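3.2 Worked example (two chains)
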Amino acid sequence: MNSIRSTHVIAGFIGLAAFWVPIFARKGGVNHRLFGKIFKYCAYIVLGGAILSVMLHTGQGLSEGAGPKASPGSFAFLMFLGYLAIVTFIGLRHGLQVLENKNDLTAMNIGFNRFMAWLAIATSTALIIYNIYFKPPNMIVLFALSPIGFGIGRERKCCTIGCLMARYAGPSGSAASPGSFSSIQSMRNNV
């Protein structure tokens, strides 16, 4: 567990430092791309470590008999950390995919992305149900953060619906060609 924590902290520190270079560097320049990649890999390491740590702590708690009923506050904190890691992963991955596919957003319409959208919505729903059923001491925080997963999930779902609609919309020579950002934005507004 200590090695996971150390890796998580070190990668988080490096990623946080690397985050600022692309913000101020010339867009598309060598430093912008290099430090953007460093940030991306650090973010994935931080999120992977967080998810692994939550799973290990949850397993340890359950094996010791400290389930949600016996310790609702501790379990709620683990749920919060897991939820935060999941929705952050989904948001990060979505942003990176938009950058990679900016010329054809229909390429983002894959089963895994639709699954991620539903996962974000499911985790938000699970937080709300857990709060209502177990009433942990930090339930206000969990209720306050639960809309994030709904928002991310809806955004992902609308993007994939928009991608499907854009794929079958008019000829590619039109002002808003299929798969272009403007065609998807206009269609999403009608969904």
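3.2.1 Second chain
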Amino acid sequence: MTKSAPMEIAPWRIRSLTKLVYSQPFELLIAFVILINATSLAILTMPDLDPQVRAACEQIDLICFAIYGGELVLRILSYGRKPWMFFKQGWNIFDFLVIAAAPIFSGQTAVLRLLRLLRLVRIFRFLPEVRVLTTSIIRSLPPLMSLAVLIFVALFMYGMLGHYLFGPDDAENWGSITRAMTRGYKEATSVLFLGRHVGFPAALEGALKLKELAYMHAEGFAGGELKHGPIALIDKGTPVIAILPPDSSEIAEKMRSNIQEVRARGAEVIAIADPSHKLDISNLIRIPECEELLQPLLSIVPLQVFAYEMAVARGNDVDQPRNLAKSVTVE
């Protein structure tokens, strides 16, 4: 703790009492009492508190208040023949108001709680290090405000970008493309998954995960079978998730043809493709380029995330899906 210069005492003050109330041990004692008081008040805010503990904390608060009152009286008495000089310092006025006002507002709970909090603020008076810290914080406010303005502008620009990318109705989902997509499809009655070659098992897995988590009707179909029945299920607004192979694949053009067919019938297409494809689709999830046989390892990730986000959007418990078991014991 920093060592302060000797305090000049006016001749009309009581020297011994002044030295006592402004001595470092006395101020540290009051700071310690304030700390104990703050702890007891914090405990009183806890829910389901034991009655005995509550009574003990309230008793501690009363004792601390009595100590504050005694300290205030000693400080006023230290001014000797001119006690009114006590009220020429801001901290002294603050102390008098928050301590002496308590008996006046004894019947008003809200005011008493406010006075309790204000009494805790008095710790800034008794700890020099805290006073230095407070001064430093006050001096730092202008640059901190400038930084806050810059952060606000950056967040505003980010928000506007999200508005144009995902639309005004998905503000809470900016930053997550998959989440933004699912919010628009949570009321759908059916979701179809399309894939060809190794993309077909991935489509089946995506449909299975959606059934398990979101409790929705979902089916995975091979792209080559689309015109042999599944296309009859397509209605306006039906979500269709298409898994495209690499553009170099001989079946890539056929998958693009499947997408055009379902879009022509009003389907909402979500495409999962690598950067080799040039697609005019608003709901496009990009995955890294890889060998065609390894692509399901990558495409299954957004499919599982889609099922998760859809389940969350529908209010389902994704940690404990209904009617599912880790092991099957009954055939």
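3.3 Remarks
The mean pLDDT is 79.
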